[in-house]
Amino acid sequence: MKIIITEQQLSNIVNKKEWGRNDDGPKKFKKIKKKIYCLCDDGTYSIECCETYKQVPSTEKHVSDSLNVIKYALDQGLDLKRSASDSKYRTSWFDLIGGTQNQRNDILNIIPSEYRNYIPEIVSGVDKNFKFDVRLIDILSEIEKISGLELIITGGRDYFHKPRNPSSKHNTGKAVDFVPIDGMNAKNDKKIEEAVLQIILSGRYGMEIGLINERVYPSGHASGPHFHISLDTNVEYSNFGFIDMNGISSDTKVSSGLNLKWGNGGPYPTKILDRIHSIQVQKTKNIEKEKEKISLEKINAEKENNMKLEKIRLDNLFSTLKSDNSYTSYCENLIKIKNENPNDVSKIPTELLIKKGDINETLTFCEMLLEPLVKLDIMPAQNVLRPSVIGVEKIEKDIEEYNNLLNLSTVQLIRKKIEYKNDPTKSNLIFKINQILKERIKLK
What we know:
This protein has 13 helices and 13 strands. By secondary structure, the protein is an alpha+beta fold.
């Protein structure tokens, strides 16, 4: 036991079941769900912030363990039989704990008041060697969800089974008895057996689950119609009433010998084992598929993020290439990008290029604009056209003529050189002819 709240708060928090009577029928359980929370210092609400929240007095382990089992079952929404039908099999909390009523109440505050006179049948056989497999409670809770039926636990590690059947799995905390609150009949039995088979086929409990429909196949110790479910590595013999050996359910009782069953120690029937294996294989495939999906989603997310970051980088890098810039300013920025980020030049959007959306033409234009073809120190001053007076139209015309020169043969180039010799305006082209001739000589 760690910490609990007052009886009143617990009675409102736990899914409390009370007896009520409908006008047209017998007594039935109804659930009352209320929750009480208190304001915490951080502005949130929690049970732990209530002033009456207090520490439970220390108890012996077998007492606290039994209380924990009861509370766990109630918290899971299950009902518990409050005491044995025969008074000689009832065990009181007084016999277990002793002390005054107030002292016992301090300890028993963890459970609702209706369970404080006698130890509920789920653990009425509690002693210092007390053990109980709480996975049984998990299974019953799951049966409720799958079947849609409310269940009540009528037996467990109880005092009734202790003297009558010492070898029973009840006495090792490995079995419980239960019934649907609406009663056992063909319709309800089928729903419960189908739910149990579904849990078995899931493979979560290996081959540990055993089930006996003791309405259809009562055991020698049965005191009335109920289901007996066990959970042990040495699986207990089982007898289903509405499911056959192939795992197919029926609306009517399956004939004895054809029903789903196995003996002590199992194993499960081959058809059931095959289905479990098939489900497990498919589950493994689904897990691997989900892993691949998550991995792919992660890769795509990283790729998308990198693309966004790359776009931001390029947008920032190309932001200087504005159409309203002067040619000189535009070209200076373009050449800077070419020199500092040569791998990004080809990524410049066509709408940012000034020469027909062609990067090569735009670069040639800008290089000629910023660095004229004629070297100023090798020509007479009167024949030099300064960059400051070179017009854009003149550069474009020179580019076109220069491109034409590249297509001429060596003999044709020499003739052009002679032709341009006496024309000062062609001095820059003579200079380029010389460069082309030198390159061709080198290649040879």
